[in-house]
TrEMBL record:
One BP term from GO: glycoside catabolic process
Biased composition (Polar residues): 530-546
Top-level taxonomic group: Bacteria
Key words, A-Z: Calcium, Disulfide bond, Glycosidase, Hydrolase, Metal-binding, Signal
EC number: 3.2.1.51
Name of the protein in question: alpha-L-fucosidase
Residue ranges constituting the Fucolectin tachylectin-4 pentraxin-1 domain according to the UniProt record: 527-674
Family: Belongs to the glycosyl hydrolase 29 family.
GO molecular function list: alpha-L-fucosidase activity; metal ion binding
Keyword Membrane set for record: no
Region (Disordered): 530-552
Length: 913
């Protein structure tokens, strides 16, 4: 599931009513607005502010958390991208327990689960009337197994919504004799092909689209209500197999009218790290269709940081559509279960939650069951911890019982009063009379707060473009946080403040006054001493001073006040506390005794670990143990001494280096007060051994101010190296990761951890690096070749035997003319100069994607040097000056350079004339 980009659907014309600003009392349902070529910027902003979700989009947004389950042949092969040749009999889940799958997600608070009924390998996880590459061909349960039914039955049992992922790509059907990309003609047909009593669909489709629609029909008619149908746009042929998205969606809308479609109703957020943009708009400019039921694609792509800001609202697009983001991510490093992979930490999951659900996105989190058909115990525990942490954080709204009023100088529109932000109804709202304004919430008593939840009433549109939150310190307002967009939900964290008044200021809004549905306040416990009252032990006890005194909540340093611990005089005495579970540890505070003997707590070690300590080790040995964080303090401890940790841990130990008695007044453990999110883009193509691939690493503040973030990589392919440019970023910055393989790097997939480390916390994202074997160059230096496209069979051609520099090259039917002959001359760096036999000019590229590849006077520059890189069906010609790939569309079309994509459309073969 590594490839998310969706092809645009075929346009379906539909009349649209004139845009009218919708009042907060009106119902949702204005999902697509047409852009006029004469619209001004002000009119475009007003139109964007009036776009609203359909009922199914609104219901989808309210789900917030959706599970994803990948299970199939890849579970047994160690791959994430199957070959399509795996034997169905490989699937033998002896302990299949779909009830456990569903309960694991439900107990964590997930409202829906999407099951992978078919991945890119093409195997159907149910018995199909249209394919033999299905569960009926497995000996598991004597060929009667239906994993889709098992899953959907369990979902109904537990009251969880159902989603189905039917991969459009099909590598099994791409095998010789298959239907995928076979070039078959479109013919009139009826779906389903096997007559039945249900609805019928007349289509004009090729072989593969008929197969796909028949299986889609099965899935939408045999298993009850389906709430989401998940498509993606991966095509291993590089475009040779068209997808009939329009017909697919028509089938979905008819058979499952309440189901959202991925690529139609909701979109990929642009990464697989579960991280939304810090300004995440749900109104997206596009050029696809006015039909709210159609498929669409952002005008400005999926992955850019800005695809819908005010500057993107121009007449270059034809429509504005409600098209909210879905943030997909993996609990384990891979989409499918593989041995010896550990799940994300609780800290990483919470960071992801705030960066997805907390940024106007839905989180789609994958958990892969193992070969027994069960979710592993470690994953079950982590999901339970995740759900428990979300519930505990948001259990108590500190604004309960509060009152709300307009700030000085602000009034509200009729009926849209301040109290609406406190009524727990996302369909009502406070609306200032102007586009900006303030709202004050007065709490019943001073409360500790560090988290604010804001919601717009999106049934009237998404409008907020800037906001700030202030707290009252008794004499004046102090700003504690600020942001840009809100949308369905925005969760913002800040350092803990005790206050009785909180003010929301809307500092910017798109064209129309916003409607704020919710303002809720929470304390996430990060200022709470996690060690207080927890079980503690020490190496020995002297003077009736037990270990528990250091976690009693009393920092008083007088031993005779009965709040200081005491051990015997012994070698390296120790004290430790068990926090009960592995938690993110931001800081520690150690309180020394103050009556006498404070100098005894000098030259000591502090350790943090997820696993119990081995007290038979020396302090130095303990510090060197795997997974242990340590800090040696050679000076005397203070009241307190504070240490920044930045690690998850369950056990905390303090240990003297010498033989003095160990006395502690208090040990306090705190969660991080500052946090960030981390995302890494997935390389979309394989890399031959000896070549390099890149990933864009993006960071953003989620709480406080994290300071510098140092980037690193782990679990690289053998023989590979990683570099970051830059290696240190400030939260909100980006870096380019380059993974350079070596000639000895073996073929295969590697899950590379991209790690960001700040003072109090670290996070990681994963990218899959697919290494393919390096092959010998397909040409001999000094010889002439005809260069043919591996997909079309057409040859690179100088049109009309032109001899003019700057003539764009094309592809044309192969012939014996010299204008299709090219001399390859190897250069010192291993690349080639490619010279036309007919004109004597060289193949030349500039630097920008999409620009033409021409012939030009040969000069030896980097823009005339081309590397030959092994790829599907042949080799890519990669320009040394730009790193872009020689690309072409149809016969007679001009050659251009573009970023590499999967498949054979950019592959070339070299034929000796």
């Amino acid at each position: 599931m590594r490839f998310r980009l969706l092809a645009a659907g075929v346009a379906i014309s539909s009349a649209l009513a004139t845009v009218v600003a919708v009042s907060p009392a009106a119902a949702a349902g204005n999902p697509v607005v047409t852009i006029s070529p004469t619209d001004t910027q002000a009119q475009l902003l007003a139109k964007a502010a009036s776009v609203t979700p359909t009922d199914r989009q609104l219901a989808w947004q309210r789900e917030e958390l959706t599970g994803f389950v990948h299970f199939g042949p890849n579970t047994y092969t160690g791959r994430d991208l199957g070959l399509g040749t795996e034997d169905p009999d490989i699937i033998q889940p002896a302990g299949l327990d779909t009830d456990q799958w569903v309960s694991t997600f439900k107990d964590a608070g997930f409202k829906k689960i999407i099951f992978t009924a078919k991945h890119h390998d093409g195997m159907l996880m149910y018995p199909s009337a249209y394919s033999t590459y299905d569960m009926a061909s497995s000996s598991y349960l004597n060929g009667t197994a239906d994993l889709v039914k098992s899953f959907t039955d369990s979902a109904r049992k537990f009251g969880v919504k159902v989603g189905i992922y039917l991969s459009p790509s099909d590598l099994h059907e791409y095998q010789p004799g298959g239907t995928f990309g076979n070039g078959s003609a479109k013919v009139n047909a009826t779906i389903p092909s096997i007559a039945g009593t249900g609805p019928k669909f007349d289509v004009v489709a090729d072989d593969y689209n008929r197969l796909y629609m028949n299986t889609l029909y099965e899935l939408l008619t045999k298993y009850g209500t389906v709430d989401e149908v998940w498509f993606d746009g991966y095509d291993p042929t590089g475009g040779r197999q068209p997808y009939n998205f329009t017909d697919w969606v028509r089938i979905v809308r008819t058979l499952q009218p309440t189901a959202v479609t991925f690529g139609g109703d909701v979109r990929w957020v642009g990464n697989e790290s579960g991280v939304a943009r810090t300004s995440e708009w749900s109104v997206i400019p596009n050029n696809n269709t006015a039909n709210p039921d159609g498929m669409r694609k952002s005008t400005f792509g999926e992955v850019a940081d800005n695809i819908a800001g005010d500057d993107k609202l121009t007449t270059a697009s034809s429509y504005l559509a409600w098209f909210p983001g879905e943030c997909d991510a993996k609990l384990q490093p891979s989409w499918f279960w593989h041995p010896n992979q550990t799940p994300k930490t609780l800290s990483a999951l919470m960071s992801m939650y705030y960066a997805s659900v907390g940024r106007n996105c839905q989180l789609l989190l994958n958990v892969g069951p193992n070969q027994q058909g069960k979710i592993g115990a470690t994953e079950v525990t982590r999901m339970a911890e995740f759900g428990a942490k979300i519930r505990s954080t948001f259990a108590t709204n500190q604004a309960a019982g509060a009152t709300a009023a307009n700030d000085t100088g602000t009034s509200n529109t009729s009926g849209n009063v301040p109290a609406n932000v406190l009524d727990a109804n996302d369909g009502t709202g406070w609306q200032p009379s102007a586009n900006t304004g303030g709202l004050v919430v007065d709490l019943p008593a001073p409360k500790a707060v560090n988290t604010v939840v804001l919601q717009e009433n999106i049934q009237v549109g998404q409008r907020v473009a800037g906001f700030a939150v202030d707290t009252w310190n008794g004499t004046s307002w102090q700003q504690v946080t600020a942001g840009t967009t809100v949308g369905y939900k925005r969760i913002v964290q800040f350092p803990t403040v005790s206050t009785q008044k909180v003010r929301l200021r809307i500092t910017a809004s798109r064209a129309l006054a916003p409607s704020i549905a919710t303002l809720a306040l929470y304390d996430d416990g990060s200022a709470t001493n996690l060690a207080q009252g927890k079980p503690s032990t020490q190496s020995s006890t002297s003077n009736s001073a037990p270990a528990s005194r250091a976690v009693d909540g009393n920092t008083h340093g007088d031993f005779f006040a009965n709040s200081v611990t005491h051990t015997n005089s012994e070698a390296s005495p120790w004290w430790q506390v068990d926090l009960g579970a592995s938690v993110p540890v931001g800081k520690l505070a150690l309180w020394n005794r103050t009556d006498c003997c404070a100098n005894r707590l000098t030259d000591y070690w502090v350790f943090v670990s997820d696993t119990p300590f081995n007290t038979s080790l020396t302090p130095a040995q303990q510090a060197a143990a795997p997974g242990v964080w340590s800090s040696r303090q050679t000076g005397q401890a203070g009241t307190p001494t504070q240490l920044t940790v930045g690690k998850t841990g369950r056990y905390v130990m303090v240990r003297l280096a010498g033989t003095n008695p160990l006395s502690l007044a208090e040990v306090q453990v705190f969660a991080p007060a500052n946090d960030f999110s981390l995302a890494a883009s997935q390389p979309m193509t394989s890399v031959p051994a000896g070549q390099a691939t890149t990933s864009t690493v993006t960071t953003a503040v989620t709480k406080g101010a994290t300071g510098p973030i140092t980037l690193s990589a782990a679990n690289l392919p053998p023989g590979a190296t990683a570099t970051f440019n830059p290696v240190t970023v400030t939260a909100g910055g980006t870096s380019t990761l380059t993974i350079q393989t070596s000639a000895s790097t073996p073929p295969g997939d590697s899950i590379v951890d991209v790690i960001g480390t700040a003072a109090e916390v670290s996070h990681s994202a994963q990218v899959t690096v697919s290494v393919v074997a390096a092959s010998a160059d397909p040409v001999v230096s000094g010889q002439r070749y005809q260069v043919r496209n591996a997909l079309s069979g057409k040859a690179v051609d100088v049109p009309g035997n032109a001899t003019t520099a700057g003539t764009q090259l094309i592809q044309w039917a192969p012939h014996s003319g010299d204008n299709q002959r090219w001399t390859f001359t190897k250069q010192a760096d291993g690349s080639y100069e490619v010279r036309s036999v007919s004109s004597g000019l060289c193949m030349d590229a500039t630097t920008n994607s999409g620009e033409p590849v021409v012939q030009w006077t040969c000069h030896g520059g980097s823009n005339q040097r081309w590397s030959l890189v092994a790829a599907t069906g042949g080799h890519r010609l990669v320009a040394k000056s730009s790193g872009k790939v020689l690309t072409v569309a149809g016969t007679g079309d001009g050659l251009t350079q573009a970023a590499a994509v999967a498949g054979s459309a950019q592959s070339w073969i070299f034929v000796t004339p």
